[in-house]
Every structure is written in C-alpha cells, then in structure tokens.
Amino acid sequence: MSTFRLEIVTAEKEVYADDVELLVAPGVEGELGILPHHAPLMTMLQPGELRIKKGGEEIIMCVSGGFLEVRPDKAIVLADTAERAEEIDIERAVAARCRAEEKIKGAKGTEAALIEAALRRSMVRIKVADRRRRRG
Ligand code: ATP
C-alpha cells in the first residue's frame, strides 16, 4: 500500500515518525484526512483525536492543538502536547478537569481563557482515553 512520511513533534520531543497510509487530524475547521500525495497545506489543529493507519494497525493519539503542515516530501504535526491514547492517565486528566471547573468560577479575561484551554485539554484526554477503552 502507498505511504507517506509522517512526523509528530512537540517542543519537548519527537513523538512519532514513520511511513503511514493515512492520517486523520483534528483541524480547526473539522477533521482532515491526509493520504499519500495530498496537496501541500498548512493548518491549525484544535484539541482532539488524531488517528494514524499503517499496515492494518490504527494508532490513536490525543493532541491539545498545534499545526499540521503537509509538504511534498512529508507531513509534520507540530503539537502543543501529544499522547498516545494508551498512555493517557485518566485519573490525572479527571483531576485536571476538576481543578479547571473549580477555578473557572469567577475567573475573567486571560486567566479565564487559560483555564478554559486547560479544561478543554482535560476533556479531550478523557474522551480519547474512554473511546480507546471501549474499542478495546
Ligand atoms: P496537568 O494539570 O495534569 O499537568 P495539563 O493539561 O496542564 O495537565 P499539559 O501542559 O497539557 O498538562 O501537558 C504537560 C505534559 O504532560 C505533556 O507532555 C503532556 O503530554 C503530559 N500530560 C498531560 N496530561 C496528561 C495525562 N492525563 N496523561 C498523560 N500525559 C499527560
């Protein structure tokens, strides 16, 4: 099957690099499916689920936002954070959600926006980890 090079990096580390058949990423305007020979593009990502297909295997990750660039030679995801679904610590995400829900009360302006972002990250992590559990 035809493949393309995919690299997923954060400021901290390279999270993933391989030749893959399909990438589905959470674009700000909706899910984006990238197949080999996709036209070049650059877009922002929103917090959500990212799926990779390779050799009959599906890898599921959670990203908390970032950018996707499709170049002629490879696709690059520059993620704010990225975890494989099976690496997500659900208890930590639930604790983060509770903290954010508590702090959002009465918060304003930039502080409220930061708490809102933390809330979204935690909710997406919980959703991605839950879905993976159900898929088994
Ligand atoms: P917390 O308050 O629990 O630290 P956070 O949303 O503030 O959550 P981030 O700043 O988004 O955390 O991420 C910091 C690092 O921790 C990143 O490397 C991210 O991949 C990892 N991370 C955050 N939450 C989880 C989680 N629930 N399970 C696994 N890794 C996580």
Primary descriptors:
136 residues, alpha+beta, ATP Synthase, domain 1, Single alpha-helices involved in coiled-coils or other helix-helix interfaces, 2 domains, five-stranded mixed β-sheet, five-stranded antiparallel β-sheet, 10 strands, 31% helix, binds adenosine-5'-triphosphate
Q: Can you give the mean pLDDT?
A: 96
Number of helices: 2
Class by alpha and beta content: alpha+beta
What is the strand arrangement across the widest sheet? Answer: 2-1-9-8-5
What is the element string, with H for helices and E for strands?
A: EEEEEEEEEEHH
Query: What count of structural domains?
Result: 2
Indicate the percent of residues in helices: 25-40%
Q: Assign the CATH class of the largest domain.
A: Mainly Beta
CATH topology of the largest domain: ATP Synthase, domain 1
User: What would you give as the CATH superfamily of the largest domain?
Assistant: F0F1 ATP synthase delta/epsilon subunit, N-terminal
Termini gap: 26 Å
Low-confidence residue ranges = none
**CATH architectural arrangement of the largest domain:** Sandwich
Strand portion: 35-45%
